[in-house]
Amino acid sequence: MRAAIFSVFSALLFLQTATAQTLSGQDYARQGISYAREGKLIEAEQELRAAVNSAPADATFRAQLGSILGLQGKWKDALESFQKAVDLAPQNLDFRRETAAVQWQLGLMSAAEKNLQYVLTKHPGDPGGILLLGLVKEKTGDYGKAAELLDSQFELVISQPERTVALFHSVVQSHQQDKIGKIVDELKLHANDEQWEDAISRCIQVAAMGGYLETARTLFSLLPDSNPVQAPAGFQLAKLLYTRSQVSQAKELLLQLAEHGVVSADLQALLGNCFESEHQPELALEAYQRAIQMEPSRIDHYEDLISLLLYLRRTKDTLALVKQALAIAPNDARPWVWKGNVDLHRNSYKDAMEDYKHAAVMDSSNPDALYGISAAYFVTGQTEAAIDECKAGITRFPNDARFYVAYANMLLASPDAIKLEAQGEKLLQKAVKLAPQSAQAHYLLGQLAMQQGKLKEAEAELLLSVQSDPDRSKAHFALAGVYRRMRRLDEAAKEFARYQELKQVEESGTASGMAMPETP
Amino acid sequence: MAALRQFLPASLMEADGRPEPIFSDVTAEAGITWRQFNGFSPDRYLIETMGGGVGLFDFDDDGRLDIFLLNGGETPRGKSATPIRNALYRNLGNGRFADVAAEAGVSKITNYGMGVAVADFDNDGHEDIFITGFPNCTLYHNNGNGTFTDVTLDAGLQNKGRWSSGAAWFDYDRDGFLDLVVCNYAEFSFEGVAPRCEYLDVRTYCEQRAYKGMPLTLYRNNRNGTFTDVSRTSGLDRFAGRALGVVATDIDADGWQDLFVARDASPNLLLLNKQDGTFLDAGVEAEVAFDSNGNPKAGMGVDAGDVNGDGRPDIVVSNFSFEYPSLFLNRGDFPFEDRTRASQLAGPARFDVGWGVHFLDFDNDGLLDLMLVNGHVIQVIESLQPQVKYKERPLLLRNVGNARFEDVSARAGPAFAKGYLARGLAIGDWDNDGAPDAIFTSIGNRQCCFATMRGRRIPGLASVSRELRAIVMLLGQN
């Protein structure tokens, strides 16, 4: 951040020297500025303080002192000095602008904007004022305005990495896709410029988090291999690749980063996700374990490993890990929920119920606990109680689609499902409004439509389900049924083959005790 | 009570207006004391949970149905304190039965017994007995003089090394001689390391998927007392899976017998007879292979019958708890209609692990009713799922028309109020009163291990036993 302001301060220093008014103060000031030019900022500060002491009413000395303090990162002192300068010369637009720059630096956006609005009212085309206001707008989240202001000063912006990042961020956040290309072109010019590597890295992260995969990829290619700045950018890019189902590329990128010495628990956790998606559970387990080893106190890293172990039905290992998590965070509701999940899988329903209830008491804002209680009732055949918990979940967490889906699932799985179809459908419609990506909600809607003979509707819902979760065997199975009924036999055969493939993977776990009902 | 009365046919009411039980438990008065032994052991071999085959047939041609009860067997660490044997109860015609198995030559345990299929395979006018089990099958030829001869080897029906379960006699090539399809459950051995599974650190039975399913076997009757294994040429050896129950019926009304195979955690099969000695599986197209989520159910028992009076055979399959028994209506085209919920079959059976299942018209209204016998396989189930019982009650469901059923178990009789580890079920009119009777077995040498029930006498009814015996199904239904 310091670099973004440096040139503004420097200009102020050089401009102001000619207007010093007190002889002794001017001497101090000249000396101070001379030191500043040599990079001797402490000495420069001393001289300028002496100048201010000798002429306390001189706004210029105060502004110069403010600049020197700013160059040293002493932002609070700098602001104090600038504010006094503004108090002494309220109409000086340079002082106002510089004050705003320091206020921006200190995160005092509202005050900064006030000063900048003053500057721009008096001098509407003030490039520095427009630039700074753009930076302020970027910080306050008014990305559209920020993009407009910064883009209007494009040359000024692209001369500095920090400003370029701000413009890029604003453009991405305000979805002004048409402006991305020219920024990327400018960044390409700095492909081998060390001073720009950090900015490029941050732009990659911005692009990746904004979902601009190709942009992120292009920018990532500008970074030299094995550069440390690759790590955060590469991680974000990998994360985007993973969420876009380009799992293999995400995995390769993560492995490449790891090979270049990037040590990161988040990276290992994401690598585990990739392996899991590629149905390589043993490699996934190892990656998750590495994530935990790297940051054993970070409780969220346990979740993936626990759920994978559960999926693999390695309940003893899972239980041991849950106990480890509980030892680390005994007052965190999450490990108790995980313990509930393990107990549910090992058919220890009473324990599961206690775990979930304990978690619910510990953190009443944790919907997972309530959801778990509902699941525990459901798998023990106590459907009415399970439905009551779902109803409570809907009341307390009205935006959590899972409760609507689970409730609907229970109604539609009941012996009286035919009478309850309309109610179930209503719940599912609500769920897809809350979570348009809910694969299970779309799946159940597809099933309902199929049962009602609405094949087009069924196809549409099931396709949405598959889109959200392509590895869900049952959605492919249902889709095959729909196509068969539509006499689209080639598509039916294709979907059925996909179902068989996925089903085989789903059933590849070790055998356990006799089958129990599927959890909601 | 008044409300109840108006739904009951007058013939089912006592003089005082109280509903008379539909079935009476006559086990004791009939003199049936035999018990099934399943070799229950700490090793928890899955085979211990199955078996219990029973057959109702007239072995001595005296016009009265007799009872054949197949025993299970011992396991390496599940030994019986007394010798175990099969029973052949001869119907004495006075309400009592006498065990003549030893004299008849069928008492000997030839395998770990599973199911019984009875039919006259050599067209000599006498019904023969086929027994499935592990590690071989047995064919007893009825000599027509009250005795049987083990002709397994000569007939070529050993089915050696396999764990067979259900079987059905049917004439697949329409040559006038009954052929035989045998369900093989899974790869199995008492030797070596058995799959080991635990619940809460307690050894229990592994789920079905721990056992690799086996293909079906089809034997063609050579019309000379021998059979040829045609599993390969018929294509049946392609269908590997954990098959338990099978019923032969003409699904597509082409005059050729087809097969429905109920399989345990493997997709059910609907094998259409292609009239050229081969079969085509239409289970997926008919939507009878899986549940709606693409999961194969735990199919155990199966029966075929026309429940909606449209002239086409429909199918009922018993399944695991919470899976509900499946009722598939044959509409003359694919897919079949899954009528399970609309038939109101799901509600009464939701907690049950179903085994023997049979259509019968107990109230003589021309509509096929349904009987299911149940019993769980996990001893600790009640502590895991409070609403599920280990010993489960049988169900009697009355067809009220339009393929909808009413649960009449509560007034079906005392035997329907008790819990059993029931497995095999057979229906037939053993007292020739025109009303169908039922017998089911319960495994595990437990008290009240099996019960016999007698249908209420309904004047004017013709015997249905012959018709029913044409259908051969899971675990000893004849």
Helix fraction bin of chain A: over 70%
CA gyration radius of chain B, whole angstroms: 21 Å
How many beta-strand elements of chain B? Answer: 30
Largest sheet of chain A: none
Most residues in contact: chain pair: A-B, 33 and 41 residues
Overall mean confidence score, pLDDT of chain B: 88
Largest sheet of chain B: 4 strands, antiparallel
End-to-end separation of chain A:
50 Å
Which percent bin holds the helix content of chain B? under 10%
Compressed to H and E, one letter per element, the order of chain A equals HHHHHHHHHHHHHHHHHHHHHHHHHHHHHH
DSSP helix count of chain B? 8
Oligomer: heterodimer
Which short descriptors sum up this protein?
heterodimer; A: 520 residues; mainly alpha; 30 helices; 77% helix; elongated; disordered N terminus; disordered C terminus; B: 478 residues; mainly beta; 4-stranded antiparallel beta sheet; 30 strands; globular
Account of the protein in words:
- The complex is a heterodimer of chains A (about 525) and B (about 475).
- With about 525 residues, chain A is mainly α.
- In chain A, about 75% of the residues lie in helices and about 0% in strands.
- Chain A is built from 30 helices and no strands.
- In chain A, helix 13 packs antiparallel against helix 14, helix 17 packs antiparallel against helix 18 and helix 19 runs parallel beside helix 21.
- Chain A starts with a helix and ends in a 14-residue tail after the last helix.
- The relative contact order of chain A is 0.03.
- Chain B is mainly β and about 475 residues long.
- In chain B, about 5% of the residues lie in helices and about 30% in strands.
- Chain B has 8 helices and 30 strands.
- In chain B, the strands form 8 sheets. Chain B has a 4-stranded antiparallel beta sheet with strand order 1-30-29-28. A 4-stranded antiparallel beta sheet of chain B has the order 2-3-4-5.
- Chain B starts with a helix and ends in a 9-residue tail after the last helix.
- The N terminus and C terminus of chain B are likely disordered.
- The interface between A and B is large, with 33 and 41 residues.
